[in-house]
């Protein structure tokens, strides 16, 4: 497999983490030396920035460029809620830990602050000076208060009085009204007041939480506008009529702000009732310690300092922004305006010929295994398999893991239907799937009501494996049908994330999956598994041993990994050793990468690229050349400590020659990408590939769309 040459364009120097010194060349390089590794948190910031840069890529439609800007905001929210919060917790309780990169938590926090401030400043510059002007040219307007016509101002006044005023709760600050406990990431206003209220109080200050039930962006009716799509921010409406919230007093200033809190959940390993404990923790998530304060940049300094003191934050945690404090809400533009010409063209995910006929999924899978690549190929066969299993009188039992799926999904309905029809149905639900906990609690209750046996996995080990096992009686014997995937059983995600689905009735794989379910639902020693690798037992060791096998082949060694992230030090060191032995290694890593590539004597044979495009790259693939007889595995696991050592994960072999060739072709497509790929340099910066002069532009996701889908609608 080869990688085509391409020119590169560097990310702006002012917006990347400070370059790290490249290790010296030498035969006796210490693989444990901290300079051989990038910091995990700073690498994650780099990924977020690559997402932001899509907002400037004019090959994406305009509204989708705006959505990329919003996704950057959402990613940064989670980064502060989880990663920054975790570092602050280490500092707070004196539990500082140092990673393989050697950086202390306080050093990491300082560098995060420097880099994140640059990124967020650039984000608002893109919004204000690039995207909004381009939207204006397309007759899509964000109408500011100073631009309202008399008719628009009257409509806003009516909206405020009818929709906002009845549900807003201003809070004056005085001894009997202390600073309120504000919900994580909620929009709020700090208001300067002059005068006395009805009780003679002269507080001088109030807090106005924006009603969470109201949209942050509202479309103005066409009859008060002169054409086009005209949108107004809820914050503008509240600013314009803040005086009505404090009758008889003068509003001297009204400034929006937003607090990001620690949203990670801490659960003990010896819980008697995980579901009950989780319900309690979810209530506290909304009010964790503050980790970031966003404030409008026109807010007076004394008010900014007041807020910082209230939340126990410092200047390092302060982000003064020129625009709305929650840009994520701009995602609503896509649904508020009807402009298909400014969004991605639609496409119809294909269904392979093997299952296009009306024969049963079971008959099709018995003929040969099935491999699907979502979203290019339809997710519906996975749903059809479960639906048919629910209704099939020969099916005796269904078992499935659920990490993220949605309580109202067709998958859930099929499982409930199967249970109501008297089949033995077991669902292993991971309650601790981050930010899906409440939904999974609801899902568990719904399935239990239908008669499904619900198990919450193993305390201390998140169940991240994606498995379905169907037991069917055929010709006097039992046959197992299996679905294994790299992604979640969520139909919405299957339209946005790239993931493999594998369906087979291979006896060994069926037996392996059955044993994995036995381990999850019962108790006992780890069972011997024939074909699958499974964490936390064999996956880590087998991955390293296969890397070492390729290293033993010297220059004939070939490794390709496609991960979301690579952080696990032992895997990284094994890859370094393979590179030193001469093996050729390509890593397609969407997000975090702690491995330093292209260092002479250490990793000159390792190339790392990140693909950023319309779809979120989510497939995990391990390719080992094996001297011309490749071993290929798809997996639910990334190359991270948590996946390989402290989660329940699976890696499953792709053994049929045609399917191996198909996965290999897909990997080749990613490695040939010369415009949607970003190449990691030895100093930690990323360069975006550009076609050579005269070279055809090749965007891997567009190639796969053309290869695998039906024509656009």
Describe the structure concisely for a colleague.
The protein is built from 18 helices and 28 strands. 43% of the residues are buried.
Architecture blueprint of SSEs:
Elements: E1 7-10, H1 40-53, H2 62-92, H3 105-137, E2 140-142, H4 150-164, E3 171-172, E4 187-194, E5 205-209, E6 217-219, E7 229-233, H5 234-240, E8 250-261, H6 274-285, E9 290-296, H7 301-311, E10 318-321, H8 333-336, H9 361-367, E11 370-374, H10 380-391, E12 395-402, H11 410-420, E13 424-429, H12 437-449, E14 453-455, E15 462-463, E16 466-474, E17 477-485, E18 497-504, H13 507-521, E19 533-535, H14 539-552, E20 558-563, H15 569-580, E21 584-589, E22 606-611, E23 616-617, E24 621-624, E25 631-635, H16 641-645, E26 647-654, H17 657-671, E27 677-680, E28 686-690, H18 700-708
Parallel strand pairs: 2-7, 9-10, 12-13, 13-14, 15-26, 18-23, 20-21, 21-22
Antiparallel strand pairs: 1-28, 3-5, 4-5, 4-8, 6-7, 8-9, 11-18, 12-16, 16-17, 17-18, 19-26, 20-24, 22-27, 24-25, 25-26, 27-28
């Amino acid at each position: 497999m080869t990688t085509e040459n391409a020119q590169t364009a560097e990310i702006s120097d002012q917006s990347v983490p400070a370059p790290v010194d490249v290790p010296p060349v030498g035969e006796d390089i210490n693989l444990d030396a901290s300079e051989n590794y990038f910091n995990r948190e700073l690498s994650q910031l780099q990924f977020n920035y690559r997402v932001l840069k899509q907002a400037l890529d004019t090959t994406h439609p305009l509204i989708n460029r705006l959505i990329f800007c919003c996704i950057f905001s959402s990613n940064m929210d989670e980064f502060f809620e989880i990663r920054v919060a975790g570092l602050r917790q280490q500092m707070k309780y004196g539990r500082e830990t140092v990673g393989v990169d050697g950086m202390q938590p306080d050093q990491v926090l300082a560098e995060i602050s420097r880099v994140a401030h640059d990124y967020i400043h650039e984000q608002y510059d893109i919004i204000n000076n690039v995207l909004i002007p381009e939207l204006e040219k397309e007759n899509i307007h964000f109408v500011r208060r100073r631009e309202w016509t008399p008719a628009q101002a009257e409509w806003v006044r009516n909206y405020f009085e009818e929709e906002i005023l009845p549900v807003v709760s201003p809070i004056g600050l005085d001894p009997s009204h202390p600073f309120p406990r504000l919900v994580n990431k909620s929009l709020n206003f700090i208001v300067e007041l002059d005068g006395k209220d009805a009780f003679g109080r002269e507080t001088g200050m109030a807090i106005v939480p924006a009603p969470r039930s109201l949209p942050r962006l509202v479309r103005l009716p066409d009859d008060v506008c002169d054409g086009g799509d005209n949108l107004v921010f809820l914050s503008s409406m509240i600013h314009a009529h803040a005086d009505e919230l404090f009758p008889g007093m003068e509003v001297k200033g009204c400034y929006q702000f937003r607090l990001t809190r620690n949203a990670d959940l801490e659960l003990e390993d010896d819980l008697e009732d995980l579901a009950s404990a989780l319900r309690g923790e979810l209530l506290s998530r909304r009010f964790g310690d503050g980790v970031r304060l966003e404030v409008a940049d026109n807010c007076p300094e004394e008010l900014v300092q007041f807020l910082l003191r209230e939340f126990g934050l410092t200047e390092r945690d302060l982000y003064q922004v020129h625009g709305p404090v929650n840009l994520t809400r701009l995602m609503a533009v896509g649904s508020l305006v009807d402009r298909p010409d400014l969004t991605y063209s639609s496409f119809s995910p294909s269904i392979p010929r093997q299952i296009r006929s009306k024969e049963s999924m079971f008959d099709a899978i018995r003929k040969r295994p099935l491999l699907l690549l979502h979203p290019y190929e339809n997710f519906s066969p996975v749903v059809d398999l479960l639906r048919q299993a629910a209704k099939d009188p020969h099916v005796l039992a269904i078992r499935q893991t659920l990490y993220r799926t949605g309580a109202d999904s067709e998958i859930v309905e099929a499982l409930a239907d199967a249970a109501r029809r008297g089949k033995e149905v077991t669902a292993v639900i991971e309650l601790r799937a981050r930010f899906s906990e409440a939904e999974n609690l609801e899902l568990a209750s719904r399935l239990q009501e239908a008669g499904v046996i619900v198990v919450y996995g193993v305390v201390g080990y998140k169940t991240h494996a994606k498995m379905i096992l169907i037991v069917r009686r055929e010709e006097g014997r039992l046959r197992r049908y299996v679905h294994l995937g790299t992604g979640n059983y969520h139909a919405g995600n299957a339209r946005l994330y790239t993931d493999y689905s594998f369906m087979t009735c291979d006896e060994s794989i069926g037996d392996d999956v059955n044993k994995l379910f036995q381990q999850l639902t019962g108790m006992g020693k780890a069972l011997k598994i024939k074909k699958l690798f499974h964490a936390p037992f064999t996956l880590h060791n087998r991955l390293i041993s296969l890397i070492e096998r390729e290293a033993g082949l010297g220059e004939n060694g070939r490794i390709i990994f496609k991960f979301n992230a690579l952080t696990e030090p032992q895997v990284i060191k094994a890859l370094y050793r393979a590179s030193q032995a001469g093996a050729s290694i390509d890593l397609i890593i969407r997000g975090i990468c702690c491995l330093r590539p292209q260092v002479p004597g250490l990793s000159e044979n390792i190339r790392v690229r990140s693909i950023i495009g319309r779809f979120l790259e989510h497939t995990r693939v391990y390719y080992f050349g094996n001297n011309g007889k490749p071993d290929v595995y798809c997996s639910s696991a990334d190359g991270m400590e948590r996946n390989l050592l402290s989660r329940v994960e699976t890696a499953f072999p792709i053994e049929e020659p045609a399917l191996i060739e198909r996965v290999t072709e897909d990997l080749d497509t990613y490695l040939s990408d010369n415009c949607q790929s970003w190449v990691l340099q030895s100093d930690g910066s990323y360069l975006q590939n550009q076609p050579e002069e005269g070279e055809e532009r090749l965007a891997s996701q567009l190639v796969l769309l053309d290869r695998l889908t039906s024509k656009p609608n």
